[in-house]
Write a structure and sequence with these properties.
Low-confidence stretches: none
Strand order of the largest sheet: 5-4-7-6
Structural class: alpha+beta
Largest sheet: 4 strands, antiparallel
Helix content: 40-55%
CATH class of the largest domain: Alpha Beta
Mean pLDDT: 94
Shape: elongated
Order of helices and strands: EEHHHHHEEHHEHEEEH
């Protein structure tokens, strides 16, 4: 953080640190530009404008109004509450043993169903689909080239590649044909609500259970959230019993 003076508004200095703090309060998608000079200049301009308006508010004696005092009091309470919550939740952690125990006790949560990796060609008419199939079967064109030339699906530009998908991700007629197909074979025409498909399955993956290393961070995050929620609720009930008048 820099103490370099970047601007002076009504005798009040604005430093690089002030700009840093201003950016820290922005949404995450904006904070990623924190090191961009143009973005920082834009933020500095915003900060200068805010300070200038604040000075105007002082001159208009808005800080002496009941509304201002009410807003400040509410903001103070909200800030104190946020800081107290952070203090209450500080230090909550999850051990490697807890992560491993959760994984062992809940194997059903980490099952990965069977999947296929497939390519397809989509056209509107069945006759056209059959003609394309014929050119592929007689070696006139490869499946991928036919997809690039004829398929109406955006995947055509990738040779019809749909990547890997599991059950429930495609319409039933397409899904059934893909999972029933032999690897490397071209099946179709398969009719769906979108038209007529030729399908070529590249790979099949049987159902499996994801390894602990693949899901450990997800488990840790969920367990920390659970612990935080529990501590938060218990502390809230304790505070209500202590402070709420009946």
């Amino acid at each position: 953080m820099s103490q370099e003076i970047l601007a002076v508004v009504a005798g009040e200095q604005i430093t690089g640190t002030d700009v840093d703090h201003f950016i820290e309060n922005m949404p995450q998608e904006q904070r990623v530009y924190a090191s961009n000079p143009h973005f920082r200049n834009h933020c500095l301009d915003q900060l200068v404008t805010i300070r200038a308006y604040a000075k105007l508010g002082e001159e208009l004696k808005l800080d002496e109004t009941d509304e201002f005092k009410r807003i400040i009091e509410n903001a103070k309470k909200e800030l104190l509450a946020q800081m107290a919550m952070a203090e209450t939740l500080k230090g909550i952690a999850v051990t490697e043993e807890e992560v491993a125990a959760f994984y062992e006790e809940n194997p059903h949560l980490f099952k990965k169903g069977e999947t296929v990796s497939a390519k397809h060609i989509l056209v509107k008419e069945e006759d056209e689909c059959k003609e394309i199939l014929s050119t592929i079967e007689n070696g006139e064109k490869s499946f991928e080239d036919a997809a690039k030339e004829k398929s109406t699906c955006p995947s055509g530009g990738r040779g019809g590649d749909l990547g890997e998908f599991g059950r429930g991700q495609m319409v039933k007629e397409f899904e059934d044909a893909a999972f029933d197909a032999e690897i490397g074979a071209v099946v179709g025409p398969v009719k769906t609500q979108f038209g007529y498909h030729l399908i070529k399955v590249e790979k099949k993956n049987e159902a499996s259970v994801m390894e602990l290393a693949q899901v450990s961070e997800q488990i840790r995050s969920n367990l920390i959230q659970q612990k935080q929620n529990q501590v938060y609720m218990e502390k809230a009930e304790e505070l209500k019993a202590k402070y709420v008048e009946k």
